[in-house]
Amino acid sequence: MTNRSQKPLISNQFEIIALNSEKIKLSNGMPVYFLNEPDHDLIKIEFSFNAGTFYQNKKLTSVVTANLLKEGTKRKTSKEISEIFDYYGVYTSFDPQKDLASIGVFVLEKHLEPVLSLLEEILKEPSFPESELEIYLKNLIQQHIVSLEKVSNVARMQFSKLLFGENHPYGQTLILSDFDNIYKDDIEQFHKKFYNANNVFCIVAGSASDRIAPILEKHFGGNDWLGENNFKKEINSEFPIADKHLFFKDNAVQSAVRVGKIFPGINHPDYHKIMIANVILGGYFGSRLMKNIRQEKGYTYGINSAIVSLVHGSYFFVTSQIGVEFVKNAIEEIYSEISILRTVSADEEEISVVKNYLSGAFLRSFDGVFAKSDRLKELIAFNLDDSHFFNYINTVNSINAEEIMRVADMYFNEKEMTELVVGKL
């Protein structure tokens, strides 16, 4: 019987279970990864193309291409496609991001054949109707105009440009004229170049029975959609010099603040240690930034920091929305906390709390086969293997105060930070 008078033991020691994915190649060379979980009737099948915004030569082409795939093929209208998916109870996902454009379906195994037949048609034979393109762009420009009213959205968009430069694919920002400069031919050319069997990987998560591979081979293993692998792309690696920037908004009640810099990415040997240092600074609710700037000073309702790892470049940032009368003081406190992280050893109690938090968050990120498929997708995108996760947990368990301070001092240099305020200063 449980003794309620004693608190349970808390431990961050646990056995890591490898993803144990199985990889095959279809006849045309397309890689398919299987994550098998028996008795899981619902199956997730996701195709991830090297077709994110990083690869577009004209703004919007990646996003518009991915989102218009389902709006008509050479044989079916948008309405017919929607009705078929509804009939089979399929949930679809069309998700263009910075690096990858991922197209996925969640489907019962018994409906795989008709659903994958339709998905084949969508991926290989989209018609990109002019009428649907016009409607989509009208909606998109309206969403963009509305988003510009929020200082947080402006800060997010402008900060990437300040870090990477407007000539870098990650630094692109939209202006209203961009919405008038996208045509059907742009979409068709982008689709032709990037949506092919040599530029994609597929993940199947769920009850991966023996009948799935033959169905995938039938619909996606042929030579009818071969093309180029477009993973590598030459880019300008010279980043702007760190500086302070203000985008003034006269009617702002709160100002959006961002402070950050280009950072080592997920493939860097110090990455796991840097991530732990970031969590101490601002990566969870009990972080130093939250305690100081939210709880003690009351300058904001929330503040956090994060490291964003992208395939072709990564960055660190602190972000918050702050009352305009507190902006200067809050920025001073941000730099103060970064300085303390670099120069003062964390105590054992704080490190223990962070280790327990990270261990729990790590386990939750593997909860269920669909969550595991997201982690597998991360490994494939960054050309990593299961050892990445083993190294992470080993680092969490073994890191000490001296090592945290070492990486903080090396990478979190306040003088190298770019600072942005959108609103009033």
Describe this structure in words.
Helix content is 41%, strand content 19%. By secondary structure, it is an alpha+beta fold. It folds into 2 domains: 22-225, Cytochrome Bc1 Complex, Chain A, domain 1 (2-Layer Sandwich); 244-423, 2-Layer Sandwich (Cytochrome Bc1 Complex, Chain A, domain 1). The strands form 2 sheets. Strands 1-2-6-3-5-4 form a 6-stranded mixed sheet, with helices on both faces. It has a 5-stranded mixed sheet with strand order 7-11-8-10-9, with helices on both faces. The radius of gyration is 24 Å and the shape is globular. The N and C termini lie far apart (60 Å). The model has no long low-confidence stretch (mean pLDDT 94).
Keywords:
425 residues; alpha+beta; Cytochrome Bc1 Complex, Chain A, domain 1; 2 domains; five-stranded mixed β-sheet; 14 helices; 41% helix
Provide a brief overview of the structure:
With 425 residues, the protein is an alpha+beta fold. It has 14 helices and 11 strands. The strands form 2 sheets. Strands 1-2-6-3-5-4 form a 6-stranded mixed beta sheet, with helices on both faces. A 5-stranded mixed beta sheet has the order 7-11-8-10-9, with helices on both faces.
